[in-house]
Each structure stands twice: as C-alpha cells, then as structure tokens.
Specification:
Rna Polymerase Sigma Factor, Chain: A, Arc Repressor Mutant, subunit A, globular
Length: 171
Amino acid sequence: MDQTNANFVELLTASHDKLRGYLMSLLGSRADAEDVLQRSSVIMWQKFDNFEPGTDFVAWASTICFYEAKNFLRLAVRSPLRFDDELLQRLSDDRLNDLENQEPRLRALDACLKRLRDDDSELIKAAYLDDGQISELALKLNRSTQTIYNKLNLLRKSLADCVRKQLAETT
C-alpha cells in the first residue's frame, strides 16, 4: 500500500465513528448513516488529492458527508425525515461543533459509568448496549416498564451531572 493510501485509510479509520455519529444526527438511522458513510468514503477517496495534509480531516470529510446525506434525503422516498436545506445545514453546523467536544465527554462518561453500582451498570448495558426493548427488559427483571423507565431516567440524570462535574474539573 503506498503512502497516500495508507494516509487515507488511517484518517478515515480514526474518524469513522465521528462521521457515522454526525450522519446519524442528520439521517436518524444507523443503517442509513452507514450507507451514506460508505458512499461518502468512496467520494473522499476520489477527492483525497484535494485534502490538505495537516488540516482537519473530519471537517473536510463531514462536508462530503453532508452533501451525500442531503442527496440521500432528496432521493430516499422511504425516509420519514423531510428537512429543508436550511434546517439540514443548521443541524450539520451544530453537530460539527459538538464533535469537537466529543472525546473529553466520552472519557468523562466512561469514568462516570465505572462509578455506577453493578446492578445499575447492568441495567444501562441491557437498555442501551444490548438493543433491548424496555418492555422485554422489564419482564426479564420482573419489574414494571414504568419502573425501568424511571430508573433509567434517574441514571441518565446522575450520569449527566457526573459528566458535567468531570468536565468542569478538567478545565
């Protein structure tokens, strides 16, 4: 693999999760985001000679992703989302600003998750990582669905407070 190929693969791999999250915020679907990211990656490769080394790859790549998402939404009859260009641009700008702060927030969240009691940690994993339905989870835990929702709301609030404190301590 020549150096240009290696540079492209390294940059794309390092930014894949950020770009997918960015596209999910625009498209509302993980499957659609993956599809658009795959198409965008091909275009990024084709235009990689236009990328200036040393500049922000995510900013450059997200511009390509934005136009591919816009095209996808225009062509996707099955999509329940119908955004006008101005709203899509605003969402894009907000998400790009958010991406800049993602790494410190994720580190803080990881630290806060490690502080949870084991049963709370297991509940979070079951609800969010295992793609479980809350109603199925409630049956499994022999609790009401509302009880599970209430507990998750308390945990989310507690985690959000913990993340804010973590971030405040590091700045």
